[in-house]
DNA sequence: TTGAAAGCGTTACCAT
DNA sequence: ATGGTAACGCTTTCAA
């Protein structure tokens, strides 16, 4: 009924009448190296299989100072983008013997700071982080202490840290150009007020395209989403109601697009006839929506792959000072009905 | 530059010229109990604050046999439902000093089995699991070994294990009745082939409602979603094309509804005029879709709350044999345009 | 009121 | 070829 005490390496040694050391060597594949006799190896291995012995990772972690755990600090793990990345990362982590602990920062510096300090005392081996504002110093500290850190989604200009991001400016430029090519002459960029690098880059790409093409444009910046806040939907409704001339909208993120599209519906602004739409961050539902929404798709699998590849590389170079790896991936513009 | 060695309790003791024990007592709030002098307490605490000492959780875990880690085994962490639960659980776990490791089983028994065994050797304190088929024995083992286990989304009839689920049968019954009340006389239930309790219960509720009302019905069961598989969309297209008489569809899950709705669009079956639709598992996009889709909403916050409440309760009773807690929560039918 | 020391399960150095 | 043992950082019993 009650937990049968787990067998330890000591029990095995006692049972087989040999020393702990020998068992340890055999378990860790150092038997040959130590010239332990084949028959003893076999005997120990058979016994281990028989009783189903599994080494205690906590003890290993204490001894080795490594835990085989990576922490994944997303802005919000329930967000589809982060959840998808989490899933893909999980796969690769497990394949390499690593587990993943997750947490959500809510883009809150204090919370992120606290989480980092919590995980340090758990001997986590590495950090994958979507940095919040003002996290520069904490990231720098982690790096100085020798922790592998890989940032993603956004990065921090002032700190030389590995990161995996996408071509935000380039793709925003391309998406905006697409609107212009389709005939839009009065553009609007909808985004959140934010100092996050990816948002700034997207805005820059938009502006550049509009300016390069000599097209009128304006920007609608919403407060960062916060449950206490008024719905973006309300704001967008008001904004567009007062600006009937707008004929092309670039949404900086899919969440805003969904809210905005609802507003367009209510305002009877037919898409794409009266107003064309492009959104950053493609989504399953952009394909279902009527009309289907043109969107910029981030290469999720590639992001996850590069994240883990970089992390594993750094993990392999523990105690050495590793060179930061900076990956910038291309996106894809999926043209659909909203820009016909 | 390189990792300044982390201070341990030993360093503190040495620095202050007292024993490790004393420091430990003070850190763990047992100073009063041990009648340690106020001034010494203050001295130690001040020093700890000054150097920012944080105890090593791995060492604590090894010593105490508890890790303050809960593992969250979902079917697929990138699925919106599981991701949302993950987020809510995270919140409560962290509030109580627990961290969460996640993993996805893909509903694969072998994978789940392996994951369980992996986590046992990490001293995880508890398991929150969406059980895969054939996992009865493994759950039972966990229970026998004294691990707190809470199942959710579905449960296992043969094992007396705590679980948090929703009223699947009742809500499916209610949703089906809703279709019938709105005039449907030729119903169809779309689901996946599955032995999962929640799917079976939903089917049962559907059937019962149809039979109680003496209404024709049929069922369309798709192979369990698998990337190698043909798209549910194709199957549904074919299925409904051959059955023009169907005037009411109950989708067992939102994923199927989205695929089915696309098929309806192509087949020109106007919703709700020609065919009414209800889906299990409400979704943000059911509100955005045109027409808005009537759906049964699971109480996510409540599920998460009950999950953690139950888990924490069990964690408090470690080493005692705890009574399984069985929670069944009510859902809400959100009536929308698809059943007008 | 404080300290010494055992012990949690491992690994790895040093003997033999 | 194999074994003894210190060490990882902490908690807690027992002794002083």
Automatic annotation (TrEMBL), chains A, B:
Protein name: Transcriptional regulator
Record's keyword annotation contains Signal: no
GO MF terms, alphabetically ordered: DNA-binding transcription factor activity; transcription cis-regulatory region binding
PROSITE patterns: HTH_LACI_2
Matching InterPro entries: HTH_LacI, LacI/GalR-like_sensor, Lambda_DNA-bd_dom_sf, Peripla_BP_I
Keywords: DNA-binding, Transcription, Transcription regulation
Segments forming domain HTH lacI-type: 7-64
Superkingdom to which the source organism belongs: Bacteria
């Amino acid at each position: 009924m009650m937990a049968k005490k787990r067998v330890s390496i000591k029990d095995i040694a006692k049972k087989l009448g040999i020393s702990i050391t020998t068992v340890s060597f055999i378990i860790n594949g150092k038997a040959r190296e130590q010239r332990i006799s084949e028959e003893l190896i076999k005997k120990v291995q058979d016994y281990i299989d028989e009783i189903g012995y599994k080494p205690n990772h906590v003890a290993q972690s204490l001894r080795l100072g490594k835990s085989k755990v990576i922490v994944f600090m997303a802005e919000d793990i329930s967000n589809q983008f982060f959840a998808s990345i989490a899933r893909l990362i999980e796969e690769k982590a497990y394949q390499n013997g690593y587990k993943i602990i997750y947490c959500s920062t809510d883009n809150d510096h204090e919370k992120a700071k606290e989480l980092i300090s919590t995980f340090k005392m758990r001997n986590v081996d590495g950090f994958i982080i979507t940095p919040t504002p003002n996290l520069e110093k904490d990231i720098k500290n982690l790096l100085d202490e020798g922790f592998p850190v890989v940032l993603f989604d956004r990065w921090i200009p002032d700190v030389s840290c590995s990161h995996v991001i996408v071509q935000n400016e380039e793709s925003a430029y391309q998406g905006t150009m697409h609107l212009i090519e389709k005939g839009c002459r009065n553009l609007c960029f909808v985004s959140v007020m934010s100092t996050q690098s990816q948002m700034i880059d997207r805005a820059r790409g938009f502006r550049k395209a509009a300016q390069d093409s000599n097209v009128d444009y304006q920007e609608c910046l919403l407060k960062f989403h916060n449950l206490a806040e008024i719905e973006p939907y309300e704001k967008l409704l008001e904004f567009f109601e007062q600006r009937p001339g707008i004929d092309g909208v670039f949404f900086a993120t899919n969440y805003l697009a969904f809210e905005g599209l609802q507003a367009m519906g209510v305002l009877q602004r037919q898409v794409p006839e009266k107003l064309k739409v492009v959104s950053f961050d493609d989504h399953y539902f952009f394909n279902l929506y009527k009309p289907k929404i043109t969107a910029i798709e981030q290469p999720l699998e590639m992001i996850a792959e590069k994240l883990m590849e970089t992390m594993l590389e750094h993990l392999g170079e523990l105690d050495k000072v590793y060179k930061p790896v900076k990956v910038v991936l291309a996106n894809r513009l999926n043209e659909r009905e909203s820009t016909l």
